[in-house]
Design goal:
This protein has 13 helices and no strands. The longest helix is centred in the last third of the chain and has 42 residues, at 226-267. By secondary structure, the chain is an all-alpha fold. The chain has one domain. Helix 3 (35-42) packs antiparallel against helix 9 and helix 6 (81-120) packs across helix 7.
Length: 327
Amino acid sequence: MAFYRTIVSQAWKSTWHNKYLWFFGLFAALLGNGGELEIIFRGFDDNLSEGLIPSLWGLAQTGIFSKTALVNITHLAAKEPFSVIATLGVLFILLMLGIFVAWLAIVSQVGLVNNAARITTGKRHDIKDGIEAGIKRFWPIFGLNVILKGLIYLFFALLSIPVIASASKAYFSANSFLFVLAFLLFVPVAITLSFIVKYAICFSVIKGESFIKSIKLGWQLFAKNWIISIEMAFLLFFINFMVGICLVIFFLVMAVPFLFILIVFTKLALFVNFWFVVVSASIILIVVVAFVGSILAAFQISSWTGLFIELIGRGGMSKIARVFGKN
């Protein structure tokens, strides 16, 4: 594990000693902070028909795309135009805010890759370098992220067709079999796409390659080092898992004094103070999760960047290959 230990150790030192990377990590985490295994498990839940495409299914369930909803909006606009205009104005502001956050997430992802590479190679670096690189390489990296998400959800949708069809019937065994088959087909595709895009982003940001060529080089690098990539993914997932456990323990410990205060306020019928404690606890929860998530995102992207630099430089050998090579 010396190969991975060196990369992970360097990534942690870079993340800890260059705290401006946490700012990038805060927004880059919005693109997904759980790595390849998060992509695999996110779409699957206990409901076979809804779990494959939960976001689209949930949005459709609200009825927002229905004819009735559009008719109601039209009637409301005729009766209360000011209310409709105010609502549309708020929605427009929220849309613009969402676009800005998405832009900042891509810029932060590029900034992390760029500055992690500069730190690893001993070059000058600061937050300005990261932002400039993010603006310069925004569209290629945006395209790579869209391709990754789009292909994965498209594959989800295609696999969900036979599952949903069988779910409408009372054949549980066939339904379960199709679900397992869909999962087994999805796993290698999702992992492969994720690694290709990850390496393509590094080629685009660090080496300045074109959009198409970065994808081609990303595929070649993954094909040559797929075992190393999977081992690295499991190592980072394990670190994520342990951090998650530590967070749960931390929140359980912190919950004791808050629960005690809540019980006291409830007994004294102090409802104002009761809600003050609830809101305070929620704010602390959100701040801690965002803080840890930003550090974790910066650390993970730095780790993958370090691995990329090693693979295109000196190369590497997987742990499995080293173990069997000794026998």
